[in-house]
Amino acid sequence: MTPPEPMRALITGATGFVGPHLVAHLESEGDDVNGIGHSDGPDLLDGEGWNELVARAAPDVIYHLAGFSDVGASWRSPREAFRLNAEGTMSVLEAARLNNVHRVVVVSSADVYGIASPASLPLTETAPIQPRSPYGASKQAAEALAQQYNRGWGLDVIVVRPFNHIGPGQSSNFFAPAIASKIARAELAGGGEVTHGDLSPERDITDVRDVVRAYRLIATAGRSGATYNVCTGKAVAMSSILDDLIGAATVPISTAPDPDLIRPVDLPVLRGSFEALQRDTGWEPSIELNQTLADVLSDARLRITEPDHSDVSNTKDPT
């Protein structure tokens, strides 16, 4: 495949977990990147503000990452999740339409698939959409808007459904970095305990650096109006993630379940197919999970400078 020409890119949500990795990757490819974070851009519900920003930036492509990203927290704040992910996506799509942006990549989530039967795995992009969480429902609404803008307005939009992804820089509201942070604190304290929720769910986990590589390939080689899974095609149990991280600790660490960390509804197994993405762009995952977990733990050790004897909290999301 011929390398794509450098592009002028606008990234919403550039200061979140994935955003900085995407900025770094795009810049390494020679793109002119305008990253908009929570503190330096308009509110997602401010349609006029986004129209003015996009008019000034004049991007070739918009990567829409901004929104409500915490699946567990969406059970406590369903209205906020819906407004940010659905109405917020409309603000960006309308700004792109009014300013003739060449392409928009809307980042959705594999959470839209909901609970899938073992016989339906791996999930392809044509699998039924049946979200169980408020977060998943909000992403389904965002997808519907993206598809309507493509069919009704002719806007060049592509929807991306990343499955679970982890890596350096992720918030400790998510499972792997939460466990890694506790381990790092325990190492400073000489030992400790890690609490956790349900360890039985199995997830298809991709390194965030592979994910952002997929996003640029989708922007340059994906089909207009298409939807793409970004995943590895393999599922791993949360218990395995915990064991691998504990096994890398330099001090003795015990574990204990915490009923408060159990979600109201969780998906037993989620595993996808990246066949369509590979066919259209040539992408495939390149970073092994053990390397990703080692990098997550190293990142936690750099962040943690003092021991902490409190329990790990906010670990309801499987990643």
Keywords:
319 residues; alpha/beta; Rossmann fold; six-stranded parallel beta sheet; three-stranded mixed beta sheet; 10 helices; 13 strands; globular; disordered C terminus
Describe the structure.
The radius of gyration is 19 Å and the shape is globular. Helices cover 40% and strands 15% of the residues. The strands form four sheets. The chain has a six-stranded parallel sheet with strand order 2-1-3-4-5-10, sandwiched between helices. It has helices at 18-28, 47-57, 71-74, 78-98, 134-153, 175-189, 208-221, 238-247, 275-281, 289-303, and strands spanning 8-12, 32-36, 61-64, 103-107, 157-162, 165-166, 192-196, 202-203, 206-207, 227-230, 236-237, 253-257, 269-270. Helix 4 (78-98) packs parallel to helix 5 (134-153). The two termini are 33 Å apart. The chain has a domain at 8-165 and 206-230: 3-Layer(aba) Sandwich (Rossmann fold), CATH 3.40.50.720. It is of the alpha/beta class. Strand 1 (8-12), helix 1 and strand 2 (32-36) form a beta-alpha-beta unit. The protein has ten helices and 13 strands.
How would you sum up the global shape? globular
CATH superfamily caption of one domain: NAD(P)-binding Rossmann-like Domain
Helix content estimate: 40-55%
Q: Decide which structural class fits the backbone.
A: alpha/beta
Summary of the model, kept short:
The protein is of the alpha/beta class. 40% of the residues lie in helices and 15% in strands.
SSE topology sketch:
Layout: E1 8-12, H1 18-28, E2 32-36, H2 47-57, E3 61-64, H3 71-74, H4 78-98, E4 103-107, H5 134-153, E5 157-162, E6 165-166, H6 175-189, E7 192-196, E8 202-203, E9 206-207, H7 208-221, E10 227-230, E11 236-237, H8 238-247, E12 253-257, E13 269-270, H9 275-281, H10 289-303
Parallel strand pairs: 1-2, 1-3, 3-4, 4-5, 5-10, 6-9, 7-12, 8-13
Antiparallel strand pairs: 8-11
Helix pairs in contact: 1-7, 2-4, 4-5, 6-8, 6-10
